Amino acid sequence: MKFSKPQTLLQIATLLGVDYVGAETFQVLGINEIHVVEIGDIVFVDHPKYYDKALNSAATTILINKEVTCPKGKSLLISDDPFRDFNKITKHFNPFIASKVSISESAVIGEGTVIQPNVFIGNNVSIGKNCIIHPNVTIYDNCVIGNNVTIHANTVLGADAFYYKNRPEGFDKLISGGRVVLKDHVDLGASCTIDKGVTGDTTIGKGTKIDNQVHVGHDTIIGEKCLIASQTGIAGCVIIEDEVTIWGQVGTNSGITIGKGAIILGQTGVTKSVIGGKSYFGTPISESREKLKELAEIKRFLKDRKKS
């Protein structure tokens, strides 16, 4: 999530009420999670296991709960609760603004696009040309939709990420400030749910077609010309490369990559990253031919055991 204009380290430290290490005028351009940080971003870290990863990341400002040596060319924000203060930054620079109408006046809708009855379109949404948005679709703030996109009834774009910190008093939500981006010629079936990124974008690539009742988690990137069948659940921070086919009732772990041209057969649990150009099946996942051989061997073993 980029700020509308650059901030200084002093301005952010003052907002949070925390100490800092670095020049007061050190430039801060936005906030991001560790896997998508860029130069100018703030990243937060609140566990010793991830200190080195955050300090050595592309982020140039680290919001951290320990006084450490500041890497050259970077700055630190010293907080007793980086999770809380990261949320404070999101709220300040991307506050929730309640809608008063079904289609926001700030939404931009392209020529030839059809909006069916009972559609909700939030603030700062952009929809391209020649799209069809069917009844009861909900499009949260800041979503970006390309040209020639079809979205079927009851689909929701831009709900919050499923991301919580377990505290003694209950689960504390990390506030989502990202977007959903659909490229040109994407089709979404009925009752799909596409969560927005925590700080970045959940993206569905050009020409990808998604069946009914598919869930896509926060910050996931789906490539071009993919086919995803119904009742598939894709976790957050997954990368699905171009021309992947995923059949029905597949589930994935978070943070994995599915390589270009891979085929994931129905009811597979994608528990790890897999390379492209192959067919996969089962839980835990393996190449479909190998899995079928394993099943045949088990069947043969049981048959022989029964005879003996």
UniProtKB/TrEMBL annotation:
Name of the top EC class for this enzyme: transferase
InterPro entries: Hexapep (IPR001451), LpxD (IPR007691), Trimer_LpxA-like_sf (IPR011004), UDP_GlcNAc_AcTrfase_non-rep (IPR020573)
Gene3D superfamilies assigned to the protein according to its UniProt record, in alphabetical order: Hexapeptide repeat proteins, MurE/MurF, N-terminal domain
Top-level taxon in the UniProt lineage: Bacteria
Catalytic activity, EC: 2.3.1.191
Gene Ontology cellular-component annotations: membrane
Keyword Transport recorded: no
One Pfam family, short name: LpxD
CDD domains: LbH_LpxD
One GO MF term attached to the UniProt entry: N-acyltransferase activity
Residues annotated as domain UDP-3-O-[3-hydroxymyristoyl] glucosamine N-acyltransferase non-repeat region: 27-91
SUPFAM superfamilies according to UniProt: Trimeric LpxA-like enzymes (SSF51161)
Presence of keyword Lipid metabolism: yes
Keywords assigned: Acyltransferase, Lipid A biosynthesis, Lipid biosynthesis, Lipid metabolism, Repeat, Transferase
GO biological process: lipid A biosynthetic process
Name this polypeptide is given: UDP-3-O-(3-hydroxymyristoyl)glucosamine N-acyltransferase
